[in-house]
Write a structure and sequence with these properties.
- The chain folds into five domains: about 210 residues, Jelly Rolls; about 140 residues, Galactose-binding domain-like (Jelly Rolls, Sandwich); about 140 residues, Alpha/alpha barrel (Glycosyltransferase); about 160 residues, Glycosyltransferase (Alpha/alpha barrel); about 80 residues, Sandwich (Maltose phosphorylase, domain 3), CATH 2.60.420.
- The longest helix is centred in the last third of the chain and has 22 residues.
- The protein has about 800 residues and is an alpha+beta fold.
- About 25% of the residues lie in helices and about 25% in strands.
- Helix 4 packs parallel to helix 6, helix 5 runs antiparallel to helix 6 and helix 9 packs parallel to helix 11.
- The radius of gyration is 28 Å and the shape is globular.
- Strand 29 and strand 30 form a beta hairpin.
- The strands form seven sheets. Strands 10, 11, 14, 15, 16, 17, 18, 19, 20, 21 and 22 form an eleven-stranded mixed beta sheet that branches. Strands 5-4-7-2-9 form a five-stranded antiparallel beta sheet.
- It is built from 15 helices and 33 strands.
């Protein structure tokens, strides 16, 4: 609750994140039951244990140690403090069987004599986020790495706990958000009930209670041996999230109090007089994900309502240009803080908020309220932008920058479809997001985490769940196919066969489910669940015609072929010749079935169903990508689907696949001509790319950031040419650009490509490959061998 100075917090979180890369874990703790136990609050019979709790443990040290390693987790969440300093949050989201713990070295924060280890722990039950799982009861766990740190092990003897009655959950209503919302309740905090200073040494805790024993603590290996896997403890595999100071620069308007942006600097307090109703609308100027932190003094009898929104709405509840604020209002979820009149009180919600616009609605009573400071602490997965792209068209740089912001805001402890409404990790979104991570950051840890979680989500039917982690099962069968594609993507970019190999059983089960749903024509029909393909206007709930009916669907049938082609490559690589051969034959049979039943020979285009009443870009995109039509006919088909506006059009999401089809059809030089939608979105003041182009629900969906991939893979032409990215192919398509420059991170170092056009068809390419990497350069079908180091090619 009580925040640190921003600079100190930033350094602390960075140090923890660095430590997580190579955590020191006693191997015994991964195989045997822990000496520490899960502890929780004491509750009366029939009394629920959901809520916010504070745990603390005082311990003495003769001297400052060189290391003091502990392992920490909670159900559901915790924020950890040592001697009053916040040093981390967790646990990283996983599922019930694979419950993560974090490893911290407390030594930098310890002192000779008395020390205080404390944690804020919360469990919001059914009012929590849909993505939050639970192993059954509000509980906290600390285990020292060795006997040296055992003094802080959670037991019922030395720890103390109290329920924080200051917190009240604040349900989010339909009037605040429009559309499906999955983030759970927001916070109302009553300062007069909050135990200020509870995390510090000097706090008096005589009234606090002893915790109750909840259960023994088992690492996953030990839990498996005893057949009780719920809560199996497993180390966190991703770094700590970034947390950095982010000032809000603009006051759009205010009523009830005279103000400007000076108070937002933290140097000019803003005084709200007694008995005043003040409304202050602020603009971050770009969308962000951050923990808002409010610092106030005085104001007993006041209330501060903080509302957050991606965009403002006009009287018709349309967003329009995001930079136009006149006659627009903020609708969004809200937190509430009730000051107690004390000095320098702070409010920080339990979970971060997503916003561009923030509205402070302040009502004072008989005592004036002073706002000492208000700012955000940006948070997100600590991706570093190691790639770069520049060109002679400056508009492309804007697309790149906005795309990267979108990707960052949609990545935290998992990938997210969107940060404002759901924060759920969907396979369809994640495949594109993971490729952005590989291309731009060269960071595969969140992708590995996602692949593993989706594999763990599989149900007895054989399919992965569409989104995971979550307690609420949702099935989108085509997303299981995209998980297969994701495994292949990882195999293409990383030389990590042992990791990839463990997914082969899941790929088998996915393919078996689909094979069982093929009809006699070798196309998919009457599939259950929600067969979402794209948010196209003519697809009801995103489902193409025929997918859930007897007539069948060409689109998902060809998506199956797309996955089969990749599964065949994987099984071939691992020497599984029988299965690889079967997948290849099955793919060919489906290609033939789709062509015979759905290809309209008069229109020379694929229909969505054998009835040939519905036609889409989607079916024909997949026909090109899977060679359901011969290669020499693919350019003409691509031209048709680009020109024919009567076809159901691909949305921003599916245009990722459409652009790949453009490239496969030999028309990649036209790629840059297809970016009109992205330029239009920028012209509408969007600072992230949305779910859909026209007045979307969500202003931030990283599936719409796919141009970042293509700027490097298509315009600069940098792509893996062998599994594990052991070779590279540079085949650029700069279109009308006079120059284009790209840097892509590779496990061996950076690949750098600088292109300069010569006349209409010529090019000068300066290419630098890291030591140990070779490949080829391709221009106008002419191939030139590439070696490690710098080389200049003129054609």
């Amino acid at each position: 609750m009580k925040s640190l100075l921003p600079s100190l917090f930033f350094l602390v979180v960075l140090s923890v994140a660095q430590g997580q890369r190579n955590p020191s874990i006693n191997p015994e703790l991964l195989r045997h039951e822990w000496k520490a136990a899960w502890i929780g609050p004491q509750v009366s019979r029939g009394e629920g244990d959901h809520g916010v709790y504070h745990f603390r443990r005082s311990f003495d040290l003769a001297s400052k140690p060189s290391s003091f390693i502990i392992h920490v987790t909670a159900d559901n969440r915790y924020r950890l403090f040592i001697n009053g300093k916040a040093i981390g949050l967790g646990p990283a989201r996983g599922d019930k069987v694979h419950w993560h713990f974090e490893t911290f070295d407390l030594a930098p924060y310890l002192q000779p004599g008395k020390n205080m280890l404390a944690a804020q722990v919360w469990n919001l039950g059914d009012k929590g986020p849909v993505a939050q799982m639970t192993i059954g009861k509000t509980a906290f766990l600390v285990q020292g790495d060795t006997e040296k740190e055992s003094a802080v092990n959670t037991t019922t003897d030395h720890w103390k706990v109290i329920k924080d009655d200051a917190f009240r959950v604040k349900p989010v209503t339909g009037e605040q958000v429009f559309g499906y919302y999955a983030l759970g309740a927001t916070d109302s905090v009553y300062a007069d009930r909050y135990p200020w200073g509870w995390e510090t040494n000097n706090f008096k805790d005589a009234a606090w209670k002893k915790p109750s024993f909840v259960s023994f603590a088992d690492p996953l290996y030990h839990a498996y041996k005893h057949g009780e896997a719920d809560g199996g403890l497993t180390p966190r595999t991703i770094p700590m999230m970034d947390e950095t100071l982010e000032r809000i620069p603009v006051v759009i308007r205010s009523t009830g109090v005279k103000t400007d942006a000076k108070f937002l600097s933290g140097k000019n307090p803003l005084v709200i007089p007694a008995n005043t109703l003040a409304v202050i609308l602020l603009d971050q100027t770009h969308l962000t994900t951050a923990y808002p932190e409010l610092w106030v003094s005085g104001g007993r009898g006041s209330s501060v309502n903080i509302a957050y929104a991606e965009a403002l709405y006009d009287r018709d509840r349309k967003k329009g240009n995001r930079n136009e604020t006149e006659n627009k209002n903020l609708y969004g979820y809200q937190d509430v803080f009730i000051p107690d009149g004390g000095q320098n009180r702070s409010f920080r919600p339990l979970w971060y908020r997503t916003y561009r616009f923030v509205e402070l609605n302040i009502k004072t009573g008989a005592q004036s309220l002073t706002i000492n400071d208000f700012y955000g602490m940006f948070t997100g997965y600590p991706f570093e932008q190691k790639a770069s792209f520049t060109s002679s068209d400056t508009a492309l740089k804007n697309i790149w920058d906005v795309g990267w912001r979108t990707a960052r805001l949609c990545a935290n402890e998992t990938y997210y479809d969107c940060p404002y409404y759901e924060q759920l990790q969907y396979v369809g979104d994640t495949r594109i997001q993971a490729l952005i991570s590989l291309y731009v950051a060269g960071d595969d840890r969140l992708m590995r985490n996602a692949l593993t979680l989706f594999d763990q989500s599989r149900l007895p039917e054989g399919l992965t769940q569409s989104r995971y982690p979550t307690e609420i099962v949702q099935m989108i069968p085509p997303f299981s196919l995209y998980w297969v594609d994701m495994v292949h993507d990882y195999h293409t970019f990383r030389d990590d066969p042992e990791f990839v190999k463990k997914f082969l059983p899941g790929i088998r089960s996915t393919i078996t489910w689909y094979e069982d749903h093929l009809d006699d024509r070798k196309i998919l029909s009457e599939m259950g669940w929600w067969n979402f393909v794209d948010w196209a206007d003519e697809f009801k709930r995103g489902v193409p015609q025929g997918a859930e009916e007897k007539q069948g669907t060409s689109i998902i049938s060809l998506e199956f072929v797309y996955a089969l082609d990749r599964a065949k490559e994987l099984f071939d690589f691992f020497g599984k010749e029988h299965e690889a051969s079967h997948y290849g034959n099955l793919a060919n049979a489906i290609r033939k079935g789709v062509y015979e039943t759905c290809y309209d020979k008069q229109r020379k285009i694929f229909a969505d169903t054998p009835e040939k009443k519905h036609f889409s870009q989607h079916a024909n995109v997949m026909a090109i990508l899977t060679d359901a039509i011969p290669a020499d006919q693919q350019p003409d088909l691509m031209k048709k689907i680009l020109a024919d506006t009567s076809l159901t059009q691909c949305s921003l999401y599916y245009r990722f696949y459409m652009m790949h089809a453009l490239k496969k059809a030999g028309m990649a030089s036209q790629y840059l001509d297809q970016l009109g939608s992205w330029k239009d979105m920028l012209a509408q003041g969007l600072t992230t790319f949305p779910e859909q182009a026209d007045d979307p629900r969500s202003d931030c969906h990283a599936w719409s950031s796919s141009p970042m991939i293509e700027f490097l893979a298509t315009v600069c032409g940098i792509e893996p040419a062998a599994p594990g990215f052991k070779k590279v192919k540079v085949q650029p398509y700069p279109g009308a650009l006079k120059e284009a420059n790209g840097v892509l991170p590779h496990p061996l170092g950076n690949i750098q490509v600088n292109l300069r056009r010569k006349g209409d068809n010529g090019i000068t390419a300066e290419i630098t490959l890291p030591q140990g990497l070779t490949g080829e350069f391709v221009w106008n079908n002419e191939k030139v061998a590439l070696k490690s180091g710098r080389q200049i090619i003129e054609r």
